[in-house]
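tl;dr need the bound structure. longer version: we got a ligand (PRP) that a collaborator sent over and nobodys looked at where it sits. i said id run it. heres the input, straight from their email, havent touched it
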Amino acid sequence: MGKVVLFNHPLIQHKLSIIRNKNTDTKTFRENVNEIGSLVTFEVTRDLLTKKIEVETPVASTTCEVLAKEVVIVPILRAGLGMVDGIHNVIPTAKIGHIGLYRDEETLQPQEYYLKFPKEIIDATVLVVDPMLATGGSAVAAINRVKKAGAKDIRFVGIVGCPEGVKALTTAHPDVDIYLVSIDEKLNEHGYIVPGLGDCGDRLFGTK
Ligand code: PRP
Ligand code: URA
């Protein structure tokens, strides 16, 4: 079974309080989602393998460590886009794949409308990114697609989850570690996380 990691770092919790607040404007919301993306990346990547290389400093030759494998970031559109710059600022060599999914409002089932992965995905450490883990349907579907593309080393990086979403994801993909800032109380009858932060895509892009 993959692990479920929760970030209780004060800076991250502080930023979570900002994005939960319904009075936070679009610009501030987007900045804080991105900053959470950067901050969680340190822990998400803590166990990445490194390889040794020789580097010439201005003074001498020395042995350094660099990432042994590529990292591929796969945001689930739209809301996943909100964390990409923050993660990419910390891992600038990462390639970025995209998967477009929206939840059918009635059935809550994810509908795929876009897919583009870099060829490196097969051997890379893949970070599937979506701030919201609600029913878990989108994360499960996205990871199904990432695995179909050949990826074997996959982590899910989100912000707000709930017990239902964590259960669905760990059941469907027990090999995938899950990183979240909060596991909230529950889902409401419309499939929204309670207390959550509302519709993340709409709040990121000002569409409501
Ligand atoms: C939201 C959110 C997640 C998904 C989570 O996307 O961004 O992708 O719902 O819900 P789930 O765990 O129940 O699948 P939405 O369908 O609203 O699309 P959007 O990001 O384009 O707004
Ligand atoms: N998607 C969101 O953006 N928010 C939720 O609470 C659930 C799904």
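gonna send this back to them w/ a short note. The pocket of PRP (ligand 1) is lined by residues 76-79, 101-103, 108, 110, 130, 132-139, 165, 191, 199-201 (CB under 6 Å).
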